[in-house]
Design a protein that fits this description.
homodimer; 159 residues; mainly alpha; Arc Repressor Mutant, subunit A; DNA-binding
DNA sequence: ATTTTGTTATTAGTATACTAACATAATGCA
DNA sequence: TGCATTATGTTAGTATACTAATAACAAAAT
C-alpha cells in the first residue's frame, strides 16, 4: 500500500480545536468494524499467498469441518462453519466441482444431501492442516504468544 | 444460531489419543482467519441492525473518509479506505446513485474524477458519526474498556 | 388424519473484494 | 523531444455473504 490508510490523529491539538470539531471527531481507524476489515484483508492475502490448490479460506473451513465430523447435510455444514444456506451452497458446489466433496442423497430424508470427503480430499487433509497452521502462524507473527492468545480470546468474546 | 459452530475441544483427553490423532489435531475455532470471519459477521449484523439509510459498512467508511478529507479522486479514496480500484468503483457508484456523493472531472488531470459530499450527505454526517459510535460500542460491549483498547491494538498490529 | 410448523435445499438479487486486462492520460528520464 | 513507466478509471470474471422467496419434505400438534 502506497498511501497508508492507517494515518493517525495522535498529534491532534485539542486545545486549538473548536468545540464543534471536537464533538464531531470520529476516527475511522479506531472503529472496530474498520479494523476488523483491514485485519481480515491482511489474513486473506497471506492465505492466498500460500495458495493450497486454489482453495479459498471458506472452502478450506468447509473441508476442515467435514474432515473433522465425517459427513453431514449441506445446511448443517453451513451452520458448523458459520455460513448461511445460500453461501454454503456455493461453497459446496465449487468444492464438488473440484472433486473435493462427494454428494449423495440421504435415503432417510429425501430433502437432505449427504456431504463427505472424496479420496482425493482425504489425501490432502494432512497437508491442509499443515498449511493452515503456517497461515495462522504467519498472520499472528507480529504478536507474542501471549498476545496471540489474548487476541483470539477477545475476538471470540465479541462473536 | 441454533447449532453453535463455536464448540470447543477443551475437554479433549490427550492421554487417550493415538499419536496420529494428535499430529493431525487442528481446531478450526482456534485459527485466526476463522475467528476473524466470525467476529466480522457479528459486527456486520450489528451494523445492519442500526441500518443508517441502508448504508453498508464499506459505504459508511467511504463517506466518513470523504467527510474527513473534503474531496479526492476515486482511486485515492479507495486507498484511504483500503479498497482496491474495482471495489471502490462499485461503492462510489452506489453512493452516487443514492445522491450521497457528487462526481466531477478534474480539470487538471483528465483521468481523475473528483469526489465530494453532496448537501444531502453533509447533513447526514453528524448522525452517521453518532450511529458509528453506537455500532462500535455495541460490538465491543462484551469487553471492558481496557480489553477494547487491547483488541484494537492487536488487530492493528497484525494488519 | 389433517393441519401446522419447521427444515432442507434452490434460486434471484444485491454488495463487497479480489484478479486481470484494457484504454487513456500524466510523468520521468534518456 | 520522445519513449517508457506509472497512475487513473473501467470492465469482466470469480468468490464470499447476505435477504427473501419458493418448493419439497418431515415432524409435531390438534
Amino acid at each position: 500500500m502506497k498511501e497508508d490508510a492507517g494515518k493517525s490523529k495522535k498529534g491532534l491539538n485539542v486545545e486549538n480545536m473548536k468545540l464543534r470539531d471536537i464533538e464531531s471527531d470520529y476516527v475511522l481507524e479506531e472503529q472496530i468494524g474498520y479494523v476488523l476489515r483491514i485485519a481480515s484483508q491482511k489474513h486473506a492475502s497471506i492465505f492466498q499467498k500460500h495458495s493450497i490448490d486454489g482453495l479459498t479460506p471458506t472452502q478450506f473451513s468447509a473441508l476442515m469441518r467435514i474432515a473433522e465430523i465425517g459427513e453431514c447435510s449441506q445446511n448443517r455444514l453451513g451452520r458448523l462453519t458459520s455460513m448461511d444456506v445460500a453461501t454454503i451452497k456455493g461453497v459446496v458446489d465449487r468444492l464438488k466441482k473440484k472433486g473435493l466433496l462427494g454428494l449423495e442423497s440421504d435415503p432417510n430424508d429425501k430433502r437432505r444431501t449427504i456431504i463427505k470427503l472424496t479420496e482425493a480430499s482425504k489425501n490432502m487433509i494432512k497437508n491442509l492442516h499443515e498449511a493452515g497452521r503456517r497461515i495462522s502462524e504467519e498472520t499472528l507473527e507480529p504478536l507474542s504468544p501471549a498476545e496471540q492468545a489474548t487476541l483470539l480470546g477477545l475476538l471470540k468474546k465479541i462473536s
